[in-house]
Amino acid sequence: MPPLTIDHDRLRRAVREILVAVGEDPDREGLLETPDRVARMYAEIFAGLRTDPAIYLQKTFTQKHDEMVLVKDIEFSSCCEHHLLPFLGKAHIAYLPNGQIVGLSKLARVVDAVAKRPQVQERMTEEIADLIVTHLKARGVGVVIEASHSCMTIRGVRKPGAMTITSSMRGGFLDNPATRAEMMALVFGR
């Protein structure tokens, strides 16, 4: 399937219509360039729709290391598919290598590629775990994501400070409570 493209003209027209629909004048000075700015913003925040995150896991290195590898506090921004509002947070990824490791920055790149799509946090967590299991053939993967959702803080229930934490465990992290507990202690400092 060819990569998706952003239709900037259509986005600009849609944003202009939103401004009219909410009672604004899209021709006033402060809003003249807003449709173009919003179109460029959507191209940026949804760039993951045009990126296959698996590309970051293709180059691996043979390494005899059979203990946990953890990269924590990977900051990300994503967009809630229900309200098209941002959610911001940190991802923590651990894996148990199976003779192959990947460059640490590649895990952060996977998070960015998956995050830059309209979605829900639960699916984001699952997708990252599945990618690492599939492409690294890891003996185990643990992904924990903690985020603050604008759809809960600035509208609706309006609960600033509420954090959502999701986890996805595979292999050794799912089957071995001690491995999972070790990861959680390293991530959360308990």
Structural class: alpha+beta
* Rg calc: 20 Å
- The poorly predicted ranges are none
Query: Overall mean pLDDT score?
Result: 95
Number of DSSP helical runs? 7
- Report the span from N to C terminus: 45 Å
Strand content: 25-35%
The best one-word shape is elongated
Helix content: 25-40%
SS elements, strand count: 7
Write a structural description.
With 190 residues, the chain is an alpha+beta fold. The protein contains seven helices and seven strands. It has helices at 8-21, 34-45, 104-115, 121-136, 150-153, 172-175, 177-188; strands spanning 60-62, 69-80, 86-96, 100-102, 118-119, 140-149, 164-171. A hairpin with a 5-residue loop joins strand 2 and strand 3. Helix 1 crosses helix 2 (34-45). It is elongated and about 65 Å long.
